[in-house]
Write a structure and sequence with these properties.
The chain is mainly β. The chain has two helices and six strands. The chain has one domain (21-115). Bound molecules: zinc ion (2 copies).
Length: 117
């Protein structure tokens, strides 16, 4: 009766829940093919669905410092930052969980978390 892998819990009701810091093990990051950002992929700690979040480095041609730097409140750095440890991640498992409000910006179970280093 042991389960080695927890499956995506589709029946888990939607709830905006801050899970705090979670273990970084199930998460991986990779640059986008066009080099405009980084995609952090992993498993939602709450519903165990697969979630991917894109963190753009900046918006070319707009003269902005970039979303990431605006969030972090600092000037652009020459090298890529590590979004794994700085950003709040939201569940984007893509499953419409029960009681999910229709106007959410993320389709998921409502969980948010930071990744521990
Ligand atoms: Zn989730
Ligand atoms: Zn889910």
């Amino acid at each position: 009766m042991t389960t080695h892998r927890r499956r995506h819990d589709h029946a888990k009701p939607y709830a905006e829940q801050d899970l705090g810091e979670v273990d970084a093990t199930p998460f991986a990051q990779r640059p986008t093919p066009d080099g405009t950002g980084v995609v952090v992929a992993g498993t939602c700690p709450r519903c165990h669905g697969r979630t991917e979040t894109l963190f753009p480095w900046g918006m070319p041609g707009t003269g902005s410092k970039g979303v990431l730097n605006l969030i972090l409140g600092r000037d652009p750095a020459p090298g890529p930052e590590d979004p794994l440890s700085h950003e709040v991640h939201f569940c984007e498992c893509g499953h419409p969980h029960p009681q999910c409000p229709p106007d959410t910006s993320y389709r998921g179970c409502g969980a948010s978390w930071r990744i521990r280093r």
